[in-house]
Amino acid sequence: MKMHRTHPRRAICALRRFNASQSGSMSVEAVLVAPLLLFGIMFVLTFFSAFQQKGTANKAAYTVADYISRQTDAVDADFIDGMADIYGFLNNQGNKKMRVSSVMWSESRGGKYVLQWSHAADDADALTSSTLSEIESLLPIMSAGTTVLVVEATTRWTPIFSVGLDVLNFKDIVITKPRFATQVIFDD
After folding, report:
1. Where is the TadE-like domain positioned along the sequence (predicted)?
2. Which of 99, 109, 113, 186 could tie 152 with a disulfide, CB 3.0–4.6 Å?
3. Is residue 11 part of a domain?
């Protein structure tokens, strides 16, 4: 059996000719690249939209929490429902839930958090003494008798394109001290 020797010079010349060749079909290249380019643009726009919505929801939750913390008069269910509407307006979303609660640190009860009041808007469940443990790990260390407001806001985001992201619920929990009073009173 005879072995053929390849000439490296021929192979190198062939590779150089191939590399220097500028012939091709732009339409074929465009058909191959266009779907990838479009999918990439849709992917980037969808993720940008998600981050933008999360940032907007976070800012809206902080705005509502700050406004409630400045109240010196008693707030009622209508006030909290109105704050939920403002949250939805600032967030540019109609599909939202909001819960506002007041929590106090009590030394007289063995050093634990005590729920003073809670009101939920838009089909959310109000916080109860038994469900307070769900957010206890988020509450700050406080001195005896100190109260904080806990504003929990959830908004639903739907992707603008179907690129692998499902519908997401963005939840923001804002904890703030009352500004001009020792506590915000809830009037049933």
Report:
1. 24-65
2. 99
3. no
Residue corresponding to tokens 């109105």: 82
Count of domains in the chain? 1
What are 110-138's pLDDT values in tens digits? 789 999 999 999 888 999 999 999 999 99
Question: For residue 56, is it within any domain?
Answer: yes
pLDDT band per the 50, 70, 90 thresholds, residue 101: very high
Element (H or E) spanning 168, and its range?
strand 168-176
Which residues does residue 113 pair with via DSSP β-bridges, in sequence order? 105
Q: What is the pTM of this model?
A: 0.78
Give Cβ neighbours of residue 102 (< 8 Å, ≥ 6 apart). Answer: 115, 116, 117, 118, 147, 148, 149, 150, 183, 184, 186
Residue with tokens 């779907």: 35
Residue 94: per-residue pLDDT = 76
How many Cβ atoms are within 10 Å of 163's Cβ, its own excluded?
14
Range of the domain at 70: 32-176
